[in-house]
Amino acid sequence: MSLQRLKKLCRDDDYYVRYFAIQSFCDVFTRIHGQTAEAKQILITFLQKLIIEEEAGLVRLAIYKGLFLCGDSDASAKIVSLLVDAMKKNDNRFISPALNILCEMTDILPNDLRKQVEFYMGEI
C-alpha cells in the first residue's frame, strides 16, 4: 500500500481504520525516510495536525504512539492518562489496545512512567 493511500486512510470515517492506518503510516514512513531529525519532524507535524481534530480515544492512542517514537517525551504520559481514564470508566474496548501499545513501549519508557504502567497492568 502506498504512503499516499495510508495518509488518506488516516482521515477515514471509521475510527478503527484510522487507528491502524496511523500506525501503518508511521511504520512505512520511517522505513522509507529513516530516523533522521528531518524525517521525524515531518512525521511529528503530520501527527500533530491529526491530533488537533481527532476525538476518538483509540485513534489518539495511535497518534501518541507515533509521537512517542519520534521522541515526544510527553506522549507516553498522555497514553498512560488515556489508559487510566479508560480504567476508571471501565471502557474495556479501549483498555486492551492501550495496554498493547504500552507493552510495546515499556522497554523504552522513562522509569517513573514504566513503574506507573506496570502498577496498572498488575491491577488488571
Automatic annotation (TrEMBL):
Gene3D superfamilies: Leucine-rich Repeat Variant. InterPro entries: ARM-like, ARM-type_fold. It comes from the Bacteria. This is HEAT repeat domain-containing protein. The lineage of its organism: Bacteria, Bacillati, Bacillota, Clostridia, Peptostreptococcales.
